[in-house]
Amino acid sequence: MNVIELFCNQAKANKRKIVLPETEDPRIFAATLEIVKQDIAHIILVGSRGKIISQLNNEQVASAITIYDPMVDQQLTDELSALLYARRKEKGMTFAQAKETILSKYHYYGALLVEKGLADGMVCGADCTTGETIRALIHCVGIKPGSSLVSSFFIMKTQNQDLGQDGVLFFADCAVNPNPDATQLANIATDTAVSYRQLMNSEPLVAMLSFSTYGSAKSPLVDKVTQALKIARENAPELKIDGELQLDAAIVPKIGQKKAPNSAIAGKANCLIFPDLQAGNIGYKLAERIGNATAIGPILQGCNKPINDLSRGCSVEDIVYVTAITALQVV
């Protein structure tokens, strides 16, 4: 069973309520049909009830989901507007502006459903940009205690079963933070470890990557990674984390033994923490395009409640998979 099938099966066992707010996009309806067919999650859609039912064109599916119509369900719309107003009034937002926001931006409506507890998580980004998704996340559900930022990870399924856990590695942060400082990099590392444990049900082995291994090169860039390692160890002493490590030392046992013989992580890492977004983004694309790895994500982490982003070029299958992963992030 591959990792995607595993995630879908796990999601079925504890069905969560996931909102897909972008009901102007036909891919959302195709994904809804597939999610209901596989019984992965209970889907919530936002928009005109009549249009949604017409687009679904499937009475059985329509009866199995929840639809919130912001123009009709006026009491709920007012409650969500009041919730957004309470969260944003110190930034100058009025109640009227809050209401206009959720009526014109359904990803805000969806995020507020999550905050209010009417949904367990949200998936959007088929139409919204990553920036729009993250703004709604921060404005509506916020950052979780203990985290200082929203970051992301990719689940990389490689063809080499000896890497990570049966060929699965987590890469972070490859999509959100361009140049994290040492404290932020430490936070990315600890949040990725939590995400790995939650989704993979096994122990994270975290490598802080650099172009240096254990001081083999001197540079302020290396210093940032070693400082991040120190902070991460102080914040999460129970975590198995090491660095700075070059990529080969982190994932190839023979090289890890040679370059870092006393490391508990070298050669065995399953979570790779890149020093900045340039390295992370290039790294995951190299693994995908040259190494023929499958990249799943980016998956967001560090938020109070699960909200995930999609690429605007996403497939129906991508929506289904990210919905399953979002369901598994619910605590």
Q: How would you explain this protein's 3D organization?
A:
The protein has helices at 3-13, 26-38, 49-56, 59-64, 74-88, 95-104, 106-116, 130-140, 182-200, 220-235, 247-251, 253-259, 277-289, 316-328, and strands at residues 17-20, 42-46, 66-68, 121-124, 151-157, 168-172, 205-209, 240-245, 271-273, 294-301, 307-309. With 331 residues, the protein is of the alpha/beta class. The chain has two domains: 3-142 and 305-328, 3-Layer(aba) Sandwich (Rossmann fold); 151-296, 3-Layer(aba) Sandwich (Rossmann fold). It has a six-stranded mixed beta sheet, sandwiched between helices. A five-stranded parallel beta sheet has the order 3-2-1-4-11, with helices on both faces. β7 (205-209), α10 (220-235) and β8 form a beta-alpha-beta unit. The longest helix is centred in the middle third of the chain and has 19 residues, at 182-200. The two termini are 25 Å apart.
Average pLDDT level: 94
SSE order, as H and E? HEHEHHEHHHEHEEHEHEHHEHEEH
CATH topology-level name of the largest domain: Rossmann fold
Radius of gyration, taken over Cα atoms and rounded to an integer in Å: 21 Å
How would you sum up the global shape?
Answer: globular
* Alpha-carbon distance between the two ends: 25 Å
Strand content: 15-25%
Described by strand count, sense and barrel closure, the largest sheet is: 6 strands, mixed
Give short descriptive properties of this protein.
331 residues; alpha/beta; Rossmann fold; six-stranded mixed sheet; five-stranded parallel sheet; globular
